[in-house]
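Sanity check

After download, print the first record. It should look like this:
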Amino acid sequence: MDIYQLHLVTPGVDPRWLVEGPRARGAVEGNQVSVDGRQLEVCGCRTATGAVRRAAVGLTSGTLVEVWRDANGLFLCARAEEVDIVRASRVAREAADEATLRAREEKRRVRAQAFNASLAVPFRWVPAVINDESGSLEEISGDEARRSTNDVHVLLEQDFRDGRLLRSAGDLLCMRSRRGEGQHLQVRKAEAYAEVSCKECLAVVNRWRSN
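Expected structure tokens:
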């Protein structure tokens, strides 16, 4: 797409014109473009380096162009039909990227749900992560602190006891939520596509599997 540089001919124009507002369109007449009652003269075609090639401008009278100002305050324009093609191509590309992202997230969600279902945990639970925004991590012991807050844990939704393993609703499978002096580890439910990744939680689950 060829980009052309323009020079404002009409005097006394508000310097914010075409900076805060949307792009505008106008037709070329005798090497000038009229936009919102303001006249701009076509200086030449910009090269890849940003220089202006003044010879052979190539915009004949009647050509519809879209006019805007760049970050440096320079007036620029391009053929409206070419702008539309570029814009439509960008919209199509963004839509394709969005569709690819949705498909990837759906694949991840299905895989996570299948994996979590395969754990066969013998109580009601949901995937969860540690919420460290409250500062509650300061109450976690050295061994527990090594568990990344990015790990996805098994969060109990009911009390459970298996031999010496005792957990209450709201606990993580790998650790109790209650800390010292009435403090509680802050956790939150993870997204639906979160796959359990905590090694300690999985170690307990695998022990049940082996039994």
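If your output differs, re-run the checksum step. Summary of this record's structure: Confidence is low (pLDDT under 50) at residues 133-146.
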